[in-house]
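Reminder: ligand-aware prediction takes two inputs, not one.
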Amino acid sequence: MKNIAVLQVGPLMPVVQESITKDYGAVRLPDGQEERAEFLGQHGGTFDVAVTSGKFGVGTDLMRALPNLRAVINFGVGYDTTDVAQAFERGIIVSNTPDVLNDCVADTAVALYVDVLRGISAADRFVRRGDWLSKGNFPLATKASGRKVGILGLGRIGKVIARRLEGFDCEISYHSRNPVAGVDYRYAASPRELAAGCDVLIVAAAGGPGSTGLVDTGVIDALGPRGYLINIARGSVVDQDALVDALLSGKLGGAGLDVFVDEPKVPQDLLELENVVLLPHLGSGTHETRAAMADLTLANLRSYSEDGSLVTPVHP
Ligand code: 8YV
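Here is what comes back for the chain with 2-keto-D-gluconic acid:
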């Protein structure tokens, strides 16, 4: 077992935090800017491993302030907050927690899908307000089964979403950087082509520099006033201002969003809209899945400390 010096970046699940503190003597990076700068000036060269989560990550400046960093262990499948380009250039290895959260994130996508099309959350508010008594029936909604669904990013999570929606008799098409082997779904050459050919566009693409603003005004316009957008990936994949404008002007039929550009801030305009379902980034948020993510995070750290390898490394 190697002697490793572990830096904790951002809060972590108690079970992870306790283990890295007790078993590896991890030190928490201070939150305040000044304390952080002073801490890094004094101790930045000490750490060879950083344990963090998708919410915080090891960004460009922090990574530069850790000259002897060798590994970043990330709690979460998404690692867009970590500067992987710098990491790979410097030979720093990075792990994430893939697969263990596919079910729960896909379940969340399907929940948003049904909710937005059928108006479930809006109908719940209708009952609670007493409108059923005073106004009569809830307005008719849109059928969820049998729709054309486009999946942007047919990776691990995208594939599970597609499989779930096959059970709803949906016709699935997708766009990824390249056609995916072993699937029968129709491949669209661009996000715009995908949006033009579907009723509901589900964003399941990884965040990061390669996907920022992929869903732009053109894609949203192609989806159109009877179209719906679901995002369980990262807020950055969608041009959020364009999305808000389209929802306000009726150019888009509705949206189901678990992720936003500047979480936990949600654009004020969205709070007023009945055709939008808003969730607080809870895709993987179940006891079972978070426990599995914690286990995998700790397994990566253990493996690194034993032989310098990672169980689930991110590939450049
Ligand atoms: C977590 C996520 O909420 O795995 C991811 O990429 O977005 C979520 O599962 C997040 O990573 C926890 O910080």
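Residues 287-307 form the longest helix (21 residues). The pocket of 2-keto-D-gluconic acid is lined by residues 53-55, 75-78, 101, 281, 283-284 (CB under 6 Å). We will return to this case in the review session.
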